[in-house]
Amino acid sequence: MAKVIIQFCSKCKWHNRAVWYLQEIMQTFGEGERFISEISIQPKIDEPGLFQVLVQADEGEPKIIYKRKFKKDNGPQDAPYYYDGFPDSKLLKTLIRDELFPSEKLGHVDGHATLTCEKCEKE
Asked: Which keywords annotate this record (predicted)?
């Protein structure tokens, strides 16, 4: 059973953003072949500035698919899941689909244009 986990810094007041993403994910992945059985939001008080999305297929380990870059962090942030700012719902849905349901279409989210990931140059 596929799962999505949204973790965020509660001190940064990103509750509303996490709930909005949850709603968007539920609308897109709530039935049929691309069903996600669990979506959780996890406020964190011990990780300042954190905002990340993880997916878990079946009983495997959760995998980070999106993590917001820290502007004041001089450490390496070059993993493919690091992004500037917050993703729009289209990008987040595409990242989830690509990881959990790669052969499925997202309907209107896919649109007529090909979505290209600038970081990895994949379509």
From this structure: Redox-active center
Question: What's the rounded mean pLDDT across residues 26-41?
Answer: 90
Highest mean pLDDT among 69-73, 83-87, 104-108: 83-87
What integer pLDDT is reported at residue 110 of this predicted model? 64
b/e sequence 45-80, b meaning 16+ C-beta within 10 Å: eeeebbbbbbbbeeeeeeeebbbbeeeeeeeeeeee
Domain regions of the chain by residue span? 3-110
Closest among 40, 67, 41, 58 to 2, alpha carbons compared: 58
**3-state secondary structure at position 98:** helix
Q: CATH number for 3-110: choose from 2.60.40.3500, 3.40.30.10, 3.20.110.10, 3.50.50.60.
A: 3.40.30.10
Q: What is the helix (H) or strand (E) element at residue 16, kind and residue range? A: helix 15-28
Residue 14 has pLDDT above 50, yes or no: yes
